[in-house]
Structures are given as C-alpha cells and as structure tokens.
Design a protein that fits this description.
- This protein has 8 helices and 7 strands, in the order βαββαβαβαβαααβα.
- By secondary structure, the chain is an alpha/beta fold.
- It has a single domain, classed as Rossmann fold (3-Layer(aba) Sandwich).
- Helix 3 packs parallel to helix 4.
- It is globular, with a radius of gyration of 18 Å.
C-alpha cells in the first residue's frame, strides 16, 4: 500500500486531496501547522501530524514520524491579494517563506529517500495565476512562479533516479484563496493605497463576475493524476477556469 504526505490539509484543496487519496486506498499522512480534531475522519490509514513548512525542525520531526513515503504533495500556502505598492516587505517575506521556501525545504527533506529507492513523486500545488496576467496578485504570483521554475528544473535533475516532479495549477475556488477573499469584501484596506481604490473595486467586481470557478475536487483529482502520471507531463491545470487559461496560453 502506498503512502502520500500532504501539507496544508486543514481545509480547502489539501483536505480534499487527503480525502481523495484515502478513498482510493492509499495511506495518507495529512499535515497541518496546528492539528485540529475532527478536520479529517478517523482511520487506520490516515494520520494527522503537525508540520510547519517554515520550520526545519518541524519538517524533520514530521518526516521521521511519517516513515517511508511514495509521494509528497506540497499544498501548504498562504494567499496574498492587494497591489504591490501596498504590500510591506514583511508581508512579501511571509508569503515567500511559506509558498516558496517551504516547498523547497520539504522537497529537500524527502529527496534522499526517494533517490535511494529509485522511485517517488513530488507534486507542487501552484496556482492558475501562473497561466495569465492577473491584477492584485503580484507577490502571490511571484511566489508561485518561482515554484513552477523550480519544479521544471527539478524534474530533469531527478529523472535519472526514477523520481518525478510535477505541478498542479488550481483555478479560483469560491471557498478558498482569491475568490474567497474577493467575495468576502476584496483586498484588505491596508494593501490598497487610496489612489488604487477605485480601480481595485472594479477589478474585484470583474473577478467575482466570472463564469468559471474551480471546485476542491477538481484539484484533488488533478493531484491524483499528477502522482500517477508517467508520460512526462509536467503541469496539470485544475478546474475549468485554469483549463481555459492553459488552452489560451
């Protein structure tokens, strides 16, 4: 029986992915920064562990507890919505620490085991913002574009060892990420300097008025396909809006 470790499973795409892999008969190590009872069902094939991707000690402890893995899904991330001029350097660093450096750290930690066994797959969940030009996402997109480039090069480095690397590019979901923030009132005031406010309101209205959105199960199914893919496909758009952007590109 194969085992997957998924980061960021307290809600949204990560939780849906954990449930999907469990339903397909895998052993699931579902991690989150602060484990909460009842988020995921009790099962002898599903363990919940604490894992903060910004802490090397936390990563090491979680992997030691998890044991041998067949797949790593780097899903943990934090959204950032707002104009760049209104985003402080500390906020930029916070986004990159989780969305980019956290992915690199967890990946680095699993590679020796994968390489020694000659098998394994790393799936990095990015975003459909990498597929098109979208306002109010400069910092977030930069953090995810870095992961896209990292994964593309990593896949080539790992190929001689039988280890694979993939990305999944979710669209916008009404219950998570940008769509959730937008429908709750848009970008926080502190991230929108006054001169930008009228333009931001229009951009938010255009965004929430779009016809296509992604559902959590779309992402879970895309991660499942990515884990099992042996054709060499690198990127897996997830959700109808992401697919439309990928086709247009």
């Amino acid at each position: 029986m194969q085992t997957v470790l998924i980061t960021g499973t307290s809600s949204g795409y990560g939780r849906a992915t954990a449930l999907h892999f469990h339903a397909q008969g895998w052993n699931v190590v579902a991690t989150m920064r602060t484990p909460r009872p009842g988020v995921l069902p009790a099962s002898d094939r599903l363990r919940v562990l604490g894992l903060d991707v910004t802490s090397p000690d936390s990563i090491a402890a979680a992997l030691a507890a998890a044991g041998p893995l067949d797949a790593l899904v780097n899903n943990a991330g934090i959204p950032s919505i707002g104009v760049f001029e209104g985003t402080s350097p500390d906020q930029v660093r916070e986004v990159f620490e989780t969305n980019t450096f956290g992915v690199l750290a967890t990946t680095r930690a699993v590679l020796p085991g994968f390489r020694e066994r000659g098998s394994g797959v790393v799936v990095n969940v990015t975003s459909s913002v990498v597929l098109g030009h979208m306002p109010l996402s400069a910092v977030y997109k930069a953090s995810k574009m870095a992961v896209e480039g990292f994964t593309a090069s990593l896949a080539l480095e790992l190929e001689p060892f039988g280890v694979r690397a993939k990305t999944v590019q979710p669209g916008a979901c009404l219950t998570t990420n940008f769509a959730g923030r937008a429908t709750a009132g848009g970008a926080p005031d502190e991230l929108v300097p006054p001169p930008y406010a009228p333009w931001v309101r229009k951009a938010m209205a255009d965004f929430t008025g779009q016809e296509l959105f992604t559902e959590e199960r779309d992402v879970a199914e895309a991660v499942w396909r990515a884990v099992h893919d042996t054709t060499g496909q690198l990127r897996f758009p997830a959700g109808p809006d992401a697919l439309r952007l990928a086709e247009a590109r």
